[in-house]
Design goal:
- α4 runs parallel beside α5 and α8 packs parallel to α9.
- The chain has a 5-stranded parallel beta sheet, sandwiched between helices. Strands 3-2-4-5 form a 4-stranded parallel beta sheet. A 3-stranded parallel beta sheet has the order 7-6-8, with helices on both faces.
- It has 320 residues and is an alpha/beta fold.
- The chain is built from 11 helices and 12 strands.
- The chain folds into 3 domains: 112 residues, Cobalt-precorrin-4 Transmethylase, domain 1 (3-Layer(aba) Sandwich); 84 residues, 3-Layer(aba) Sandwich (Rossmann fold), CATH 3.40.50.11270; 97 residues, Cobalt-precorrin-4 Transmethylase, domain 1, CATH 3.40.1010.
Length: 320
Amino acid sequence: MNLADPKPPLKVLLAAPRGFCAGVDRAIEIVERSLAKYGAPVYVRHEIVHNDHVVGRLRNMGAVFIDELEEAPMDRPVIFSAHGVPKSVPQEAERRQLTYIDATCPLVSKVHVETERHFSAGLEIVLIGHQGHPEVIGTMGQLPEGTVKLIETEQDAENFTPQDPDRLAYATQTTLSVEDTAGIVSILQRRFPNIVTPHKEDICYATTNRQQAVRTIASRSDVLFVVGSQTSSNSKRLVEVGERYGCKFSQLIDDAKAIDWNALRQHEVHTLGLTAGASAPEPLVQGVIEALRAHYEVIVEEVETAREDITFKIPKALAD
């Protein structure tokens, strides 16, 4: 495009709510306060949240991200990620007399408590989720190995054979797509009418709200950008929701540098939907808008479908 040519118009439908949820805010603040209290380095088991930019910033502040607890020295504090950990992890930390701080999202902790309650009541437990995701590993690790059965797909739900169909309960990974979960739950309830449901919906409020915002803008958008890292489950689900609700070109981008300008031109984009996963910082979203302004005459329309005022308390050890 010749710089003298007028920029083509582009309407950006900016989803609200988007970006950080209360659990992510809390987890990041836990790392920041730990660095302020204990000094660097502070060790974090796995990524505190699934976003490369967040992890990079905390690493520059003095956080050291490790895969396993054994990598942490005896004299430094360790933080557990927002996704939760198996019970064996804090038990090992206590055995080694490590100072540890649990940044598990309270909504994930709720699922942990739920599964333990079902187990104590003698129920067999089904967990709807994605194998290998840290949250799933953490939830399954609350109980003896083999106790929790993982269901990933509707076909899994059709094939599952319980020990006793009348002594069954289910829980779900908090970051799943509402639609995908509903399909699996419907099959389980059809096959096992007495299955015990969660006391309150397991999929977290932030996941639900962000998906609803995408549903609202998807059919109006020629292109949908979801800002988030490839490791972020809830961000990937937003892309799927965008496609399901009418936006044929929905894409997960890490930041403005990942924009494929040729693809935008090929799609003759007039309206672009924009949102961010629950672990993506707002400056990345604003960076995408600024990058778009260099190529288009941008008009931003914020589309708000819900308001969030939820906050979670910081652990007492850091509250001062």
